[in-house]
Amino acid sequence: MFRVAVIAFLVSIISASIVRAQENGPIVIPERLQRIASSSQLAERLGVNWGSVSPEEIGRYMGLLAAANEVARVVALKNGRETPSDEDYEAGLAAWCLWPNKPPIAEPYWPKAYAAFGNESVRDEIRAAVGPLVTQFPAFIEDGQAQQVIETQWPKDPKTYFSNVLNLESLSDVK
Asked: Exposed (0-12), middle (13-18) or buried (19+): which is 36, by Cβ within 10 Å?
């Protein structure tokens, strides 16, 4: 009986390790987010030329999509949705200053987001960094007021942006 208990205990430890290892790997980028991103200027903003793309450029592109996806997931949950809507994905892109066109407050922090594609710790940090203005943003997108709200209501000062939209200063430097 003791051996069975020890074996069961060891199996549970190994299983937990395997599950954690799988979490700390690449995530699946939702197809809908990929379509929205392809119609935005994400590739252009990153200097990605799909005709001669490098592995590093693909990594940057997928990393920012993963980061936007994590913001969208939080926005959806805080708005009572189990899965992100188009507006949630667009809010995720907006938080990273990728959609619609806006001042590039987040751009210096993009390298911190690149690891989101394959690192659960980075994804955790991004989810924790989501502020109140981005969670309210989908309603303005639905009303066709996205650009106006960003221009008139979103902070232009980085410190205020970080406390109300996305706290990019809280992200670690993970490569």
From this structure: buried
